[in-house]
Amino acid sequence: MTQTLMAELGIAIAPERKVSDLSFVEKKLVSIAKAFARPVKLLILDEPTASLDKCGKDILFRIIGHHKAKGMSVIYISHNLKEVFEICDRVTILKDGKKVATHQVRDVTMDDVIREMIGSSQVTLYKREFHQALRRDEEILEILNYSKRGVIRDVSFKVKKGEIFGLAGLVGSGRTELVRMIFGLDPKDSGRLVYRGSDITPYNPYDAIHKSIGYLTEDRKFDGLLLSRPVTENISLASLARDRKFFLNLQEEIRFAVNLKQKLNIKTPSVSQLAMNLSGGNQQKVVLAKWLLTAAEILIFDEPTVGVDVGAKAEIYRMIEDLTRQGKIIILISSDNPELVALCDRVGVMRNGKLVVILEGNELTEENILRYSMGVCEGMEVQR
User: Rounded to an integer, what distance in angstroms lies between the CA atom of residue 287 and that of residue 282?
Assistant: First the structure.
């Protein structure tokens, strides 16, 4: 049965092969074939071509076209507008969980769709007061030639002291994978981190902390906090790794935690409160406090305002802006494009593991971020 199905779908994978031995693309094709193991009237595909090569994409589109002609209906979810215009008959635009419009594909252009995707979201509740970033060569952080086969492709850029450098891109574009390599969390094939002319490439997170690098992770609950431990311990954890002390000074830990609680307006009855009992916004402030205590010069923020309310967002924005006034180097990853436009001096847009463009000045708009993220704009040289 499997052999007949694979042959019918045009997928050249031997049925006896183990899934664990297949490439990522082959695994994805197997998952597509699985959907056709029994009669299908409606097929829902969610970002089906993410990480597929051209051959895999051609196979998928051939399968869709063949079964569509036989009466099968398809709901095709994608950020890739070129694919939408290539394969779909109608397109529905969603924004913030609400339907914006539905059109016949032949009646609209990519520009029309992009405008409806953006809507009025360029209006933001916060606008940063920009100041001139330091421009001396010795104050520059250089990210040089970071690569990992199949994940990141030769990414390089520079960040100045007192600057917020944003990283934009769709889910799967490689933003988080890149900064995890920069922090020493994940292995890489190549890449160096140079600060003030010296190589500070960290071997692991412990080494990164000693080299004055902090990383506020995307998932604060999974790898940013010890939820079952008190606020005090969560705040002091990274600084203990930095200082290499043989003995704990509990009174000093509490004093530092209380000071940061007041400075960041962390709403908790006391610093002895368990982190799991705090709201999302206050949990995020605890993670930020952890890195402030290390006095890190280079700070990477991955989705710092996800899951926090509007008031907490504004407070976090002000904290980040205050860090730039202190001359810290900030790399900010966000899926919220208005947030990037409001906060960042420059924004690098990633797509398929590659840095495709760096936007600044009048070019730094939500529309341009979206265009480059989806591959609508091609051929522009990356400014480094």
Answer: 9
Q: Does residue 274 share a domain with residue 184?
A: yes
21 burial type by CB count under 10 A (0-12 exposed, 13-18 middle, 19+ buried): exposed
What is the residue-wise DSSP string for 222-279?
HHT--TTSBHHHHHHHHHHHHHT-SS--HHHHHHHHHHHHHHHT---S-TTSBGGGS-
Same domain as 159, residue 106: no
CA distance 82 to 169: 16
Report the distance separating Cα 195 and Cα 138, nearest Å. 7
Q: Which residue has the tokens 């604060």?
A: 220
pLDDT at 148 over 90: yes
Q: How many residues does the chain have?
A: 384
What CA–CA distance (Å, rounded) separates 10 from 361? 48
- φ, ψ at 207 (rounded to 5°): -65, -35
Count how many domains the chain has: 2
Task: Kindly state whether residue 125 falls inside one of the protein's structural domains.
Answer: no
pLDDT tens column, 6-39:
887 778 888 888 888 877 667 878 888 888 788 8
User: Residue 215: which residues within 8 A CB-CB, separation 6 or more?
Assistant: 179, 183, 185, 205, 208, 291, 299, 300, 302
